[in-house]
Design goal:
Helix content: 55-70%
Shape: elongated
Largest sheet: 2 strands, parallel
Radius of gyration: 19 Å
Strand content: under 5%
Distance between the termini: 34 Å
Order of helices and strands: HHEHHHEHH
Number of domains: 1
Strand order of the largest sheet: 1-2
Number of strands: 2
Structural class: mainly alpha
Length: 197
């Protein structure tokens, strides 16, 4: 629900309010996830993790390009104004999901406080994971869909609509598997993950 609020904040037409609202929503997610793990987030760490604009220049360029393409080129194709809020919602969801994943099994620090140095590390990992999840060469474990039915009694139109609906419904799980795989890969490549600061 908070991811939807984070995405919806981009719809407000005022120049400063969407970013401010998104930061508040993301900050609440950071606080909630940390609290569920019995941890406290310092104000500096919350600021680092909650900032909607990424400090990663590559990710900022990709987001800027996506907004430009949506605004200039795809405008004629229909309601592409939803692209920016949709990206914000995905990024907000990824923040909560991947922060929880990090705190659940990857965090080796004994401190009950998440300080700025750790927040920078986690933020870099999350930002890189969002980019890496889009890579076609990312190794992802695909779950077996099970055995195909022996006989399919559906008519062609029903088969087609079922396929479209089921494909659309599988996108969130597909994206989540890719995010998890990218995050795990980046965590394994991060040398200072185990360091105490």
């Amino acid at each position: 629900m908070l991811s939807l609020l984070g995405g919806a904040s981009g719809v407000v037409p005022l120049p400063f309010l969407p970013s401010r609202m998104q930061q508040r929503v993301r900050g609440a997610i950071v606080h909630d996830v940390a609290q569920r793990h019995g941890l406290v987030v310092t104000p500096e760490a919350r600021q680092i993790l909650a900032e909607p604009d990424s400090p990663d220049p590559q990710r900022a360029r990709i987001r800027s390009l996506a907004n430009y393409v949506a605004g200039r080129i795809l405008r004629r194709l229909g309601p592409v104004w939803v692209l920016t809020p949709a990206l914000a919602a995905i990024e907000t969801y990824a923040l909560g999901h991947l922060l929880d994943r990090y705190l659940d099994g990857m965090r080796k620090r004994s401190s009950v406080r998440i300080a700025a140095s750790e927040a920078h590390l986690v933020r870099r990992m999350i930002d890189r994971s969002l980019l890496r999840a889009l890579s076609p060469d990312l190794p992802v474990h695909n779950h077996d869909a099970g055995e195909a039915a022996v006989e399919d009694l559906r008519e062609d139109f029903t088969r087609l609509t079922d396929g479209v609906l089921l494909f659309t419904a599988s996108i969130p799980a597909w994206l989540l598997r890719r995010l998890d795989a990218a995050f795990d890969l980046i965590a394994s490549e991060t040398p200072d993950l185990d360091e105490e600061r």
